[in-house]
Amino acid sequence: MFEGLFSRGDRSADATTQVKPESTRPSIGLALGGGAARGFAHIGVLQTLAAHGIVPDVIVGTSIGAVVGGCYAAHQLEGLETWARGLKVRSIFSYLDISLSGSGLINGGHLASKLTEALADNRIEDLPIRFAAIATEFNTGHEIWLTRGRVAEAMRASYALPGIFPPVKIGGRWLVDGALVNPVPVSAARALGARLVIAVNLNADLFGRGTIIADHGSNQDDDDEAAQLAAQPQGLRGMFSGERSLRRQFFGTRGRPGIPTVMVEAFNVMQDRITRARLAGDPPDVLITPRLGKVGWFDFHRGADAIKIGAEAAEKAMEGITEAIAGLSQAYSNDGGK
Q1: Please, is 258 exposed, middle or buried when counting C-beta atoms within 10 Å of its C-beta (0-12, 13-18, 19+)?
Q2: From the CB of residue 51, how many other CB atoms can be counted at a distance below 10 Å?
Q3: Separation of CA 188 from chain center
Q4: 184: closest CA among 77, 68, 28, 63?
Q5: Of 106 and 91, which is predicted with more confidence?
Q6: Which of 10, 12, 23, 63 is catalytic?
Q7: Radius of gyration of the chain (CA)
């Protein structure tokens, strides 16, 4: 009897000595924000994280963030980088298939063909990393998380900036740019299983000094400009003789922004305010803020600059990322912590 008792005691002791805590890192999610050409900075961020051995379990992107995040998840980041570094001003115009007859200034077919060529028929549900592209249903304002279907199609919906690109119909819904509702999708990354969220805000330094102008009004220069506009030819005569004037009004002049610039900058201000509100309500564990103020929304020919700035920003954030991972890591026993 005693022999059996001691034997059971010995087995208990052995089991105790065999249980060794092991450190497991938390699931990591990346929330990649929108910002058009500034989004090439995401490439530098992802490359720097990879160089430090940090591989995300979840990637959620809005607009250009969806493009870069989707290419990363589909193992096409290297090809995207090569394309971004090779873009020149002249080659950019080849992607701007202007269309004044549709629901956007740019049809977007050329760019969509490029994405489809690179990603083929890759589907989101088949990617090795959990991925979602954020879009907006424009007639309801619903925030749509595209978590299945073709990757290239989801990207196109996520970057469909209203007025610039036409909306994209997916699953019976007309979708536009996700930055209208969730510019830096931290909440989506958490909901998809990320315990630690690293967010990248591309527009952090654009409106950092925004304030209230409490006293403002017209001056003599404004009155003179209004008089010049009123003096322009009207009616049919103005229509046929004012082609040059129409071109200037559309594309803008040195002293007056054109239609695309007004649309984009207004969208920029709105996106900044939404980003601030959402990040205040649901802050990421680590926020990376590349200083991209000198890179314009359509400066796609500055891809190399944006990639470098993104890499530098990620490198500066590495200490905080490492601390966050260590702080959220837990010790589990070999038997599952039971």
Answers
A1: middle
A2: 12
A3: 13
A4: 63
A5: 91
A6: 63
A7: 26
Q: Among residues 177, 272, 285, 299, which one is catalytic?
A: 177
Burial of residue 234 (CB within 10 Å: 0-12, 13-18, 19+) is exposed
- Give pTM, 2 decimals: 0.79
Answer yes or no: 12 catalytic: no
Compare 192 and 7 and report the one with higher pLDDT. Answer: 192
Query: Hey, which residues does 58 pair with through a beta bridge?
Result: 29, 130
d(CA 23, CA 328): 10
Q: How far apart are CA 192 and CA 214, in angstroms?
A: 44
3-state SS track over the chain: CHHHHHHHHHHHHHHHHHCCCEEECCCEEEEECCCHHHHHHHHHHHHHHHHCCCCCCEEEEECHHHHHHHHHHCCCHHHHHHHHHHCCHHHHHCCCCECCCCCECECCHHHHHHHHHHHCCCEHHHCCCEEEEEEEECCCCCEEEECCCEHHHHHHHHCCCCECCCCEEECCEEEEEHHHCCCCCHHHHHHCCCCEEEEECCCCCCCCCCCCCCCCCCCHHHHHHHHHHHCCCCHHHHHHHCHHHHHHHHHECCCCECHHHHHHHHHHHHHHHHHHHHHHHCCCCEEECCCCCCCCCCCHHHHHHHHHHHHHHHHHHHHHHHHHHHHHCEEECCCCCC
> How large a percentage of the chain has pLDDT more than 70?
71
Active site residue 63: yes
Instruction: With CA atoms as reference, report the closest residue to 118 among 156, 173, 165.
Output: 156
